[in-house]
Design a protein that fits this description.
alpha/beta, Rossmann fold, seven-stranded mixed sheet, 8 helices, binds S-adenosylmethionine
Length: 206
């Protein structure tokens, strides 16, 4: 996935503005599900770091923000400073299927909106499992936040960014079976693949 500079700017503006409630919503779901409030969090395919920063806001987690795109990581660095998180956050350029981190150093691996772009799902899931500490949690997937506020937010986005919104950025669509196959191939058991009006979310623990 590569974006033009204007796209990166608008994506970042949208994520920090009209879309901010999406990240706050999932940060709370992640907290409630995993109960991980301290230690190291890895935000995979972080873009400008929106989900990890929303989580940092309500926990004591230290965050590593990983993305393959230097442009998105530049946004993440700005956002980390703007959120006052520079003392407990860092960016890392890399790919999910070969995470440049040691085994077992992550307490919580999170990701939103990046999973559909991962070409080799089994390699990505195996890498996430590798970097998790025993007992660590993975919560990865995507969605548009609270189903009750979605229409209103979409309306706001259309008004604010009419031209940008018209562009199609749909990633390749996958069904649950493909995610399940990837998880099994990565040797992960048990796991959950949940598809609902909150999006598609995968959960497992090492
Ligand atoms: C749609 S954006 C989502 C960004 C952010 N997580 C969010 O929720 O707004 C997808 C991000 O995933 C990154 N990405 C896609 N495939 C990746 C891979 N294999 N490894 C690392 N980053 C990846 C892209 O560079 C992009 O920043």
């Amino acid at each position: 996935m590569s974006m033009q500079p204007t796209d990166v700017r608008v994506y970042n503006e949208t994520a920090l503005g009209v879309n901010a409630p999406i990240y706050a919503y999932y940060a709370e779901r992640i907290d409630a599900r995993t109960g991980v409030f301290a230690g190291t969090c890895l935000d995979l395919g972080c873009g400008g770091g929106y989900l990890g920063l929303a989580l940092a806001r309500i926990t004591d987690l230290d965050c590593i923000f990983l993305d393959q795109s230097p442009e998105m990581l530049a946004c993440a660095e700005e956002n980390i400073k703007a959120f006052g998180c520079a003392h407990r956050a860092r960016t890392l350029r890399g790919q999910v299927q070969s995470i440049p981190l040691a085994d077992g150093c992550v307490d919580l691996a999170i990701s939103r909106g990046s999973l559909p772009f991962w070409e080799d799902l089994a390699a990505a899931f195996a890498e996430i499992r590798r970097v998790l500490r025993p007992g660590g949690h993975a919560y990865v997937g995507g969605g548009l936040g609270d189903p009750n506020t979605r229409a209103e937010m979409e309306e706001q986005r259309r008004k604010l960014y009419p031209e940008w919104r018209q562009k199609k950025r749909t990633p390749p669509q996958r069904d649950n079976r493909q995610y399940i196959e990837g998880l099994i191939k990565a040797g992960i058991d048990p796991f959950e693949v949940n598809r609902s009006d909150e999006g598609l979310w995968i959960f497992f623990q090492k």
